[in-house]
Amino acid sequence: MTVRDDTRFMSSRRGLLAAGAVLATPGIARAQARFPDRPIQIVVPWPAGGSADVQLRSIGDLCTRALGQPVVVRNQPGAGGTLGPMTVAQQARPDGHTLTQMHLSVLRRPWMMRTPQWDPIADFTHIIGMTGWLFGTAVRADSRFRTWADMIAFARANPGRLNYTTSGIGTTNHLAMETIQEKEGIQLTHVPFRGSNEAVTAVIGGQVDMVCDSSTWAPFVENNQMRALSVWTAERVRRFPDVPTLKELGYDLVVTSPYGVSGPRGMDEGVVRILHDAMRDALLSPENAEVRARFDMPLVYQDTQTYRAFIAERVEYERAMVRRLNLTLDG
C-alpha cells in the first residue's frame, strides 16, 4: 500500500466544484461591518509546544494585528487530534469566532468508526490550506540503532519487542508505519501519544524506543540528544543532510500531511473571505516563514475554493483507504 500524502496529490482534479459556492461581494461588505467584534479562538487539537501549535500561534499573533481583535490558540488534544475539530463542528457558533486546525486525520477518522460522529465536508466551513509537517523517525542518541537498517534488522529478529510512538491511532504517520511494517514483514508495538512533544519526551526518557512523528524531535537531534533515522519528505532536509528519505530506503512514501484552518458549517462567506485574507497574509509573511523554516514545514497555501476542492477529493481517498485496509476504532 502507498500512503498518498504529498503535495502532488493536491494538484490533481483542480476542476472539482468547491463545496460552498462562490464568494459573494455583498456578503463580504456586510461581514466587514461587524466582524470580528470579539476575540477569535483557533482550536489546536494537540498539546502546546508542537510544530503545528507554534505555527498557528504565529498565525494568530499576525492576524491579531490585521483584524484588531485577539486571535488566540486554545489547545484541545485527544482522539488522535480529532477531539478539538469535532467539538468545533458540534458546539461552535458559525460566526467566525471559533476555528480549528483541519488535518488529514479529521478527514479519515469518521470512516474508521462504526457510527461516524461528524462529516468532514458537511459539518465544516473550510477556509484556507496552509502548510504541512516534516515527519521523521528518531531515537535516543545512545540507542543501539545507528541506522534505519539496524532498526529493521532488530525488529525482524525480535517481533513485537521494538516499540514506537506517534500522535495517535489512525493518524497519517501511524498509517505510514503500518505500511512499512507490511512491506518489511515486521511487527512493531505502537504506543500512541496525544502529540509529538509528549512522544519525544517519552523517547528521551527511555519509555519508548523511537518516535515517528512531526519535527518536534529536530532540535533534540541538533543538540545530540536524539538521532534521526529517516525523514519522510520527497528530498533530504537541508539541516539533516545525512538522514535518508523513506524513498531512498526503498519505500514509495512521501508524507507531509498538509493542513489548514476551518470553522463550523454555515459560516457567512464574507466572514470566510476576511479570515482567509488575514490568514493568507500571515502565512506568507516573513515572520511565519521563519517559524515554518524552524520546523521544516513546507508552504502548501491553498485559497478557499482550492482548499475545499482538495478536501472533497481527499475525503473520498481516505474513505476508500479505510475500507481497503479494514481500519476500525471502537465506538
From TrEMBL:
Name used for this protein in its record: Tripartite tricarboxylate transporter substrate binding protein
Protein family (similarity comment): Belongs to the UPF0065 (bug) family.
Pfam families, per the entry: TctC
